[in-house]
Design goal:
Rossmann fold; 2 domains; six-stranded parallel β-sheet
Length: 277
């Protein structure tokens, strides 16, 4: 179906992608606004060595919009005609729009993360520990630096961590030292604990005065957030970031104000359904 036709095809791409709740959230927004005849949001698994071929198909099939998730947020940039200034500075893209055959990249991740955190705390001057240094971490570090936080990055990949240090005013601390961190906010951008009981940090690191934010959105709750709640810390689920970045995404590609409650309800319904299984 052509993007210029009445029905505009939107896809979330990644590997894995079956767990994604983006289709449910966006399709609920279309229904709430009565525009479901104009848009359709689906999911497509694209492994890393298929990305180049798929991006050719995006042009050929005139796909209207892509939501980009792990592991493609950085690699996809080489296949785009243009990248907006914020996404260029971050060095990662999570949204691609097909504008009359021109593929343009944007990043709404950082806004989703920062707005989620601002809902529970002020950010200026906070000590932040970011676990991971991939595409999502780049966006989140960018947002924290803009908010004048003191950011330390802990990563198993020292090369990508040092790239972050070279772009942003942040510290890089060896992954092996993560259990000695001192932080007001802990932000996990690694996949550790998304689908298992593994923890990215030791239990002793967390206390009730902290805010623990996990970008993963396992509908049953990640192992890190379950632990943080038991310890009395304030927690922010990845579902909140998904919602807020998705709202920005929706407004970017439709030009219409996102129906927050409809999108939030869709995510909550998915979570309750998963909890009941």
């Amino acid at each position: 179906m052509s993007a210029s036709a009445k029905h505009k095809i939107c896809l979330v791409i990644g590997d894995p992608v079956a767990h994604s709740l983006s289709p449910s959230m966006h399709n609920a927004a279309y229904k709430a606004l009565g525009i479901e005849a104009e848009y359709e949001f689906g999911a497509k698994r694209i492994v890393e060595d298929e990305l180049a071929k798929f991006m050719y198909e995006v042009r050929e099939k005139d796909i209207y919009m892509l939501a980009v998730t792990i592991p493609h947020k950085e690699a996809i940039m080489q296949y785009l005609d243009a990248v907006d200034n914020v996404a260029k500075e971050i060095g990662a893209v999570n949204t691609v729009l097909n504008k009359d055959g021109k593929l343009i990249g944007y990043n709404t991740d950082y806004m989703g993360a920062i707005e989620s955190l601002k809902g529970v705390t002020s950010l200026q001057g906070k000590r932040v520990a970011v676990l991971g240094s991939g595409g999502s971490a780049r966006a989140i570090v960018y947002g924290f630096i803009k908010e004048k936080c003191h950011v330390a990055v802990y990563s198993r990949n020292i090369d990508t961590a040092n790239e972050l240090k070279g772009v942003f005013d942040c510290k890089v601390i060896p992954w092996e030292e993560r259990n000695s961190m001192v932080a007001d906010i802990i932000a996990n951008t690694t996949p550790i604990g998304r689908d298992s009981d593994e923890l990215p940090i030791a239990e002793s690191v967390i206390d009730k005065g902290q805010i623990v934010f996990d970008i993963n959105y396992n509908v049953n709750g990640t192992s890190l957030l379950k632990l943080a709640r038991r310890k009395g810390a304030t927690t922010i689920e990845g579902l909140e970031m998904l919602l807020r970045q998705g709202m920005k995404q929706f407004e970017l590609y439709t030009g219409i104000k996102a129906p927050e409650q409809a999108m939030r309800n869709a995510l909550q319904n998915d979570k309750e359904h998963a909890d009941a299984i």
